[in-house]
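Here is an idea for our session: we take a single protein and study its fold together. To get us started, please write out a protein record for me. Once you have written the record down, we can walk along the chain together.
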Amino acid sequence: MGVRDGGQHTFSRPQRFRGAAGHPVEHSAEGSAGDLAVGELDFASFCTGQTGIDDWVHERASSCTAAGTAVLYYSLADGGKLAGLYTLSAYSVERQSVKGGWLQRNTPRQIPVVLLGILGVDQDFQGQGLGWRLLQDALRRALSVSEHLGARALLVEPYNETARSFYEHFGFQVVPGSSTYYARLH
């Protein structure tokens, strides 16, 4: 069920975290996501080394998931430790705020997109390809959403230069006139 990356750990495929009792557990071709609910993931020990990400995970992950403002996907390392996670949300960008380019061209006043709100890998598992695997999974899910509801791009607001370089390396482009990056979904 796990996938071994180039490093020393085996990671589970990204799975959906249930934010509240009664929310459906997602199943995928890779298998069941299990039955984890609020409080069953160890958010407290998750540490990326980035204060903004760590604070959000520790203080808001469960409440945002329960409120329906973000869907959290996670990956566990062998042994069950939370290794990495990301969130997706519905979002839109005001066309006037985009200073030209593909993202603005032939779009409504509010450009529909999917927001990659948080992507983080615990320090114990950084440098082993998990960030890329999580990003691939986020892109796949955003593309699927865009086929059913319409979304032009996957948007991310990198929190520092390292994150900007990461997204640029994987083909994300800067939204003209902003510090936000996007990947085309169509």
User: Anything to note?
Assistant: Residues 2-184 form a domain with the Aminopeptidase fold (CATH 3.40.630.30).
